[in-house]
Write a structure and sequence with these properties.
The complex is a heterodimer of chains A (about 220) and B (about 325). Helix content of chain A is about 80%, strand content about 0%. With about 220 residues, chain A is mostly helical. Classes of the chains: A mainly alpha (about 220), B alpha/beta (about 325). Chains A and B meet through α6 and α7 of A and α2 and α3 of B.
């Protein structure tokens, strides 16, 4: 006679539901702010780059360095380093609200780089043609570059969203809430393997859905 | 009328100075099709781009209808650019916009027309380039020739006085090239706009240009009417371009013709003289047979021409006089 491997009766499904909702809230909010911050940053990075419209070597090098510095910092460290800033911004360093500022700071530089490379994929001939039609730099960016790079930008957003899911799980370390938090408190600290299994499956489902939705959007936007 | 005065441009490439343009002096009369021909790297692309200041010359002035484009501020330059259409080798269409929306793009950027007026103008342009059926297609669904027609329609959207063509037919097959060249010629004649085109193919120049400048190593080495440059190229670079075209009777038989008895003459007929039995008449007059060794006949734009290399036994100066009186240019070649 063998004991069952898992005892699912131990699981509090309401907790799982709340945690999933928390994860989705953190994801939605941090993705929104990441795009709002990272998109202009990525456009600026592109424009300042060599042979681009606002080519400026020192400015590009400086911006590039800041982005690299933020990206080279492990997210767990960033979480802790940013606690004072987070408290100033949202009044707390824990829970769903406390997790959002470090998530944005962690993901925005990453997203900016992806935006830069998506814009670089746009044929320079299109920029030149738009310029030859008498467009301003703003018109070139808003009417030609961004719409032409849309499939690349959507793919970049998808990758960033998936990265943010794993970041939200990590923010459980500092009491960030959500599925990661649940996994650490029950699965790790209380040895409830069942909770660990369910949270992993829930995260997998979230990532899978994000990726499929992103791929669908990219396909719809692609005209090549 | 476009005037380029003493244009100079150098680039820094890997710390080395590369001269792209050297003391360019050029006058392009309004309403003409003006060709700039040169090999890749000769500077023709840079030269074309100085006309709308996509390339800013280090020195010199670009006068367009008397206005110095190099002295304009940003707003002035954008207004000028809206008056200059540009067509590209690789079309440079926006992939996310339909054919109609690509043409409308130029109108949207100018921002002077309301939506119904823009739609009417787009329809007019689509008809002009023969793409009314394709209005709702995306560039990826079009052939190369159709893409270039969209490019031309877009370039004409703001009713420019000047059209710049950057190797507009180099990415197209020969048949499509002819169709696009005919379209450009038609536009030049119907709308009376000036066309400046750059190309590495003499055939393009021969088909539609009135005047041509040959650029080599960043310098204009020769310029004149297409008939003059094509039939009597003076500079080595021009002679090479003509020889590659294979349509003019340049003497590349030197050494192979030493066995031919008599003197070698090059005869050039243009316009009316092409239709007369000149060779037979002169042969009879001199009572000496004329031996045709090499030659070509064809058209430069709409002017017929013929160029022959002939062998003659007898009096060269008498032959030259006889040909000259019939409107045929005759040069003695050193055999």
């Amino acid at each position: 006679m063998s004991a069952p491997w898992f005892d699912w009766s131990l699981i509090d499904w309401a907790d799982i539901g709340t945690a999933t909702l928390d994860t989705l809230t953190m994801l939605g909010a941090s993705l929104t702010f990441t795009v709002l911050l990272g998109l202009p940053l990525g456009v600026l990075l592109y424009l300042l780059g060599p042979r681009r419209l606002l080519a400026n070597k020192p400015a590009y090098a400086a911006l590039s360095f800041v982005i690299n510095a933020l990206r080279s910092m492990p997210f767990v460290i960033l979480l802790i380093v940013l606690i004072p800033m987070t408290v100033k911004l949202v009044g707390t360093s824990i829970g769903v609200a406390g997790a959002i500022p470090p998530l944005v700071v962690g993901a925005a530089p990453f997203f900016a780089r992806l935006v830069e490379s998506a814009l670089r994929e746009v044929d320079l001939g299109i920029v030149e043609a738009t310029q030859a039609m008498g467009a301003t730099t703003w018109q070139i960016v808003s009417r030609a570059l961004l719409p032409e790079a849309l499939p690349g930008l959507l793919a970049a957003t998808t990758v960033t969203a998936v990265t943010l899911v794993s970041y939200t799980a990590m923010s459980g370390v500092i009491g960030g809430g959500g599925l990661g938090d649940l996994a650490i408190r029950y699965g790790y600290q209380r040895f409830q393997t069942e909770v660990m299994v369910i949270t992993v499956l829930a995260l997998l489902a979230v990532v899978q859905i994000l990726q499929m939705a992103g791929d669908w959007l990219v396909r719809r936007a692609t005209r090549k | 009328m476009i005037e380029l005065h003493h244009l100079n441009k150098t680039y820094q490439v890997d710390g080395r100075q590369v001269t792209a343009l050297q003391d360019i002096q050029l006058q392009i009369p309004a309403g003409q099709v003006f060709g700039i021909i040169g090999r890749s790297g000769a500077g023709k692309s840079t030269l074309l781009r100085t006309l709308n200041l996509l390339e800013r010359p280090d020195q010199g002035r670009v006068l367009i209808d008397g206005i110095d484009a190099t002295a304009l501020d940003q707003a002035g330059l954008r207004a000028l650019r809206q008056q200059i259409g540009m067509v590209f080798q690789h079309f440079n269409l926006l992939a996310h916009r339909t054919v109609a929306a690509n043409i409308r793009f130029a109108l949207e950027l100018a921002g002077e027309l309301d939506a119904p007026t823009m739609a009417a103008r787009v329809a007019e342009l689509l008809a002009l380039v023969g793409l009314t059926e394709q209005a709702k297609q995306y560039p990826a669904q079009l052939s190369g020739g159709q893409k270039q027609r969209v490019g031309i329609a877009r370039a004409l959207a703001n009713q420019p006085k000047l059209l710049l063509c950057d190797e507009a037919t180099s990415a197209l097959d020969p048949q499509t090239t002819q169709a696009i060249l005919q379209l450009l010629l038609d536009i030049n004649q119907r709308l009376g706009l000036t066309i400046v085109l750059i190309t590495h193919e003499m055939a393009v120049v021969r088909a539609i240009c009135d005047r041509v400048a040959v650029i080599d190593g960043g310098r204009i080495v020769e310029q004149g009417t297409v008939a003059d440059v094509f039939l009597h190229p003076q500079h080595a670079a021009s002679r090479n371009m003509v020889a590659e075209d294979g349509h003019a009777a340049v003497l590349d038989l030197a050494g192979k013709l030493h066995s031919v008895a008599g003197k070698l003459l090059r005869l050039t007929f243009v316009d009316a003289a092409t239709y007369e039995p000149v060779i037979a008449e002169v042969g009879q007059q001199l009572a000496s047979p004329i031996n045709i060794l090499q030659g070509s006949v064809g058209r430069i734009k709409d002017r017929p021409y013929g160029q022959l290399i002939v062998g003659l036994q007898g009096d060269v100066s008498a032959a030259q006089a006889a040909f000259a009186s019939r409107g045929v240019r005759c040069e003695a070649l050193a055999a």
